[in-house]
Design brief:
Elements: E1 2-3, E2 9-34, E3 37-60, E4 64-78, E5 82-99, E6 102-107, H1 114-141, E7 151-152, H2 172-189, E8 208-212, E9 217-223, E10 229-235
Antiparallel strand pairs: 1-2, 2-3, 2-4, 4-5, 5-6, 7-8, 8-9, 9-10
């Protein structure tokens, strides 16, 4: 990160992952959020590779909380067993303080001063309020029952170690894989610009996830940039 001018700074967003053996297909899909809203998407893939990495620079301004959530996916062809796939996730966050009262600087989740701790709490509070507002709007618009819990997508990073009560441990991998597959198709593949080229719909809220026991399906919901709520549904039996 460095200063671009008096009003902007540069962020370097990088993703990387490695395997202990060569995979037939390696793919990483990364979502970049600014204060709880989708700012950018990066997807990279390679064939017959162990390692995968990519970097991108983004401009920022003002104080913000940035988060990156990445799915790391690999497919390996075993002669006797057929195709085997593996996946993992990584999550990172960065707080950037840019105000008339402090020099431009950044920190991760452990600020080194009481002033930075106060600023972190303010940014967290603002983002939590925004996400709570989005969640209430989605719940009301889609008439979701109160016993259906909604989870921001960043919450799933801890599910491998501590899944929610409705999700058995042996179904976690498949559940998370279905979420990412749905995101890939609807965020990256379904949108086209007026010219007919792919146009990723940026600016919508952080996706929320729910599971309906009655319908045995996963809901993936967002508030689009124009304020309209959207829900995608995928069958998933538990």
């Amino acid at each position: 990160m460095h200063i671009e001018d008096d009003d902007e700074y540069i962020l370097e967003w990088s993703i990387s992952s490695s395997l202990n053996e060569e995979a037939s297909l390696r793919q990483d899909l990364s979502l970049f959020f600014e204060n709880g809203y989708l700012r950018d998407v990066m997807t990279v893939w390679e064939e017959d590779s162990k390692d995968l990495s990519f970097k991108k620079k983004l401009k920022g301004e003002d104080s913000n909380k940035f988060e990156v959530l990445t799915l790391h996916h690999a497919e390996i062809l075993k002669d006797q067993e057929g195709w085997k796939s593996r996946q993992s996730m990584s999550h990172d966050s960065l707080y950037v303080l840019d105000s008339p009262f402090t020099e431009l600087h950044s920190f991760k989740n452990n600020p080194s001063s009481s002033e930075d701790q106060d600023s972190k709490e303010v940014l967290d509070y603002i983002m939590d309020q925004q996400l709570n507002h989005v969640e209430k709007g989605l719940r009301k618009h889609f008439s979701l029952e109160e016993d259906i819990d909604l989870y921001p997508i960043t919450a799933i990073t801890s599910w491998y170690e501590e899944p929610p009560a409705f999700l058995p441990e042996d179904r976690v991998d498949a559940f998370i894989g279905t979420i990412w597959e749905t995101l890939y198709h609807h965020v990256l593949l379904d949108k086209k610009s007026a010219s007919g080229t792919k146009d990723v719909p940026l600016g919508h809220s952080m996706p929320f996830i729910a599971w309906s026991q009655e319908e045995q399906c996963i809901y993936l919901m967002v508030k689009m940039q124009d304020g309209s709520p959207v829900k995608w549904k995928r069958p998933f039996k538990i």
